Amino acid sequence: KSILWWSDPMPSKPVSPLGLFAIDDLLSDEERAMRDLVRAYGARELRPHVADWFEAGSLPARDVARGLGALGVLGMHLHGYGCAGTSALSYGLACMELEAVDSGLRSLVSVQGSLAMYAIWHYGSEEQKERWLPRMATGQAIGCFGLTEPDFGSNPAGMRTTAKRENGGWVLNGTKMWITNGSVAEVAVVWAGTEDGIRGFVVPTDTPGFSAPEITRKLSLRASVTSELVLDGVRLPGDALLPGAEGLSGPLGCLDEARFGIVFGALGAARDCLETAIAYARDREVFDRPLAGFQLTQQKLADMALELGKGMLLALHLGRLKDAGRLDPRQISLGKLNSVREALAIARECRTILGANGITLEYPVLRHANNLESVLTYEGTSEIHSLVVGRALTGISAFA
Ligand code: TGC
Ligand code: FAD
């Protein structure tokens, strides 16, 4: 409910950053219920373990996926095939709550629901959908999405992975890099060049010639599995092709879905940092007074709350547009650019408020900041999204 300042009996009682913006007033009962459900699940099942997973650089992805599947968030905005069929906005709110725990958990859900499941749901044959989607919705089968290659990240059009027709089937060769969920996936959606341009393939990961070595020694997204995909003469039947995806618009259409989730998700990480910093500053005494009572601290907090609230208002606007079927991919670029850039700035500023304590895993702040370095890069770097916006504003492409 709105904050009624004039009737507030305790004007000095702190208000949460998003409470200050009366964000809840902009959500329906159903949306708030979904958000609260995911928040409670995260607090109970994920948050107690996440610092350990991050420190160990190892996520029990299968258990986590099954738990999230039972919660109903895997492919939740898709309809049919065992998916929950919620609004896009509810999906965004779920991403926000998961990323408030850790970006790696939101990553798992993004890749599963918005990239791998969405690719099959939107571009797949009826047989592909029935074979994979119900198991993916429950987390019994994990999916990954192979677009990036060692030499082609921002410019996937240059990809070298090929799919050649042979005896009515396909033979795939090439390497994909930085693939979330790769080593734990049962199914990989792989994008490859064919004589008809870029096409997508549904690859069961037990197919001979497929391997997925895990990438280690990461300093970011440590509670997430990241892998290389090696496709060495992988033979697939003719019906492994995603029939509805032709050209780069196929994978980019999936990226639109996942980027939308990040618009909300990154703000979840920022909110967690800011709430942590406010609590810390109220508790911590410096020069015999609470840190929160110093003007410099309050200016930091006010500026961060302002960016968080503005980002949230933009995210909600984009969510409403998406649910109305009117969201343009260029608007998703605006949202991803803003949310991630501001979330990273907020995480770093909050780290200063925590002083030395801020560099430990006892608090979530530097973990979030480190994770957000990946979020800044994947799903289109900030530079790429700036160029998308620049092209929209000027009509001139500056990519190449
Ligand atoms: P361009 O000439 O602009 O377009 C080629 C074709 O694609 C269409 N298109 C889109 N379709 C849907 N959604 C979009 N956002 C689209 N943007 C472009 C376009 O209409 C055209 O279609 P058609 O039918 O005429 O052929 O393409 P370009 O080569 O100039 O590149 C554009 C650029 C640079 C924006 C694009 O390549 C890009 O977005 N690059 C960034 C790559 C990227 O985001 N990779 C992400 C990999 S997946 C990942 O990071 C997962 S992390 C997950 C996690 O853990 O959470
Ligand atoms: P590059 O494309 O080499 O870019 C390097 C720098 O150059 C960046 O700053 C970039 O913005 C800049 N740059 C590039 N082009 C231009 C230009 N035209 N003008 C100005 N600057 C430019 N990919 C998948 O396919 N699936 C996944 O599941 C997946 N998960 C990932 C998980 C993690 C943890 C990470 C870190 C990455 C993941 N990626 C995944 C890969 C990710 O999408 C790419 O890293 C990203 O697209 C950038 O590609 P790159 O790393 O090759 O950087």
From TrEMBL:
It comes from the Bacteria. InterPro entries: Acyl-CoA_Oxase/DH_mid-dom, Acyl-CoA_Oxase/DH_mid-dom_sf, AcylCo_DH-like_C, AcylCo_DH/oxidase_C, AcylCoA_DH/ox_N, AcylCoA_DH/ox_N_sf, AcylCoA_DH/oxidase_NM_dom_sf, Glutaryl-CoA_DH_mitochondrial. Residues 247-393 form the Acyl-CoA dehydrogenase/oxidase C-terminal domain. The keyword Flavoprotein applies. Its cofactor is FAD. Residues 28-140 form the Acyl-CoA dehydrogenase/oxidase N-terminal domain. Residues 144-234 form the Acyl-CoA oxidase/dehydrogenase middle domain. Keywords: FAD, Flavoprotein, Oxidoreductase, Transit peptide. Pfam families: Acyl-CoA_dh_1, Acyl-CoA_dh_M, Acyl-CoA_dh_N. Belongs to the acyl-CoA dehydrogenase family. This is Acyl-CoA dehydrogenase family protein. It comes from Catenulispora yoronensis.
